[in-house]
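Anyone up for a design puzzle?
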């Protein structure tokens, strides 16, 4: 294995999943909704915030953002905290980036949960260093030999410059 070396790269893993009961058995099951692995904490936090907005828009479209929802047809189905509103607030909060990155810098996993009527949505990030890649070693510096030409075929004489 000449010229190859293993490099351990830190990887930040972001994951979004839902935990809820399966219809019929009502046993709790985990459903993966998205996963990413990047080498930058800034990128993984940006991805997680985007996934929170995407999830909120899929569960309950924001009436201010959609054209197909006529006015006066939108109403809150239940009073109190709403999962989609909480997801939007978390994703749009400017303090989210700093807090999550400080948690990751301390090598601690980050996890936040948003409860809905029948399931819980979990957004999480953790540091994984198990990823390795084979990287070619940099080539050795070329040796310049002044005054000789290397033969192009065996038996051909070398010439001096």
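Challenge accepted. My sequence:
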């Amino acid at each position: 294995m000449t010229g190859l070396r293993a490099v351990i790269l830190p990887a930040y893993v972001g994951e979004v999943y839902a935990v809820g009961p399966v219809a019929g058995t009502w046993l709790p099951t985990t459903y993966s909704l998205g996963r990413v692995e990047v080498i930058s904490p800034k990128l993984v936090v940006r991805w997680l915030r985007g996934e929170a907005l995407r999830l909120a828009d899929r569960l309950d479209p924001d009436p201010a953002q959609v054209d197909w929802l006529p006015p006066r047809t939108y109403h809150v189905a239940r009073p109190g905290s709403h999962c989609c509103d909480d997801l939007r607030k978390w994703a749009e909060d400017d303090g989210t980036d700093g807090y999550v990155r400080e948690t990751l810098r301390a090598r601690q996993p980050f996890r936040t949960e948003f409860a809905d009527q029948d399931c819980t949505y979990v957004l999480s990030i953790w540091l994984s260093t198990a990823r390795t890649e084979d990287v070619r070693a940099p080539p050795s510096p070329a040796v310049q030999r002044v005054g000789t030409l290397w033969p192009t075929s065996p038996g051909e004489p070398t010439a001096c410059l």
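A detail worth pointing out: DSSP finds three helices and six strands in the chain.
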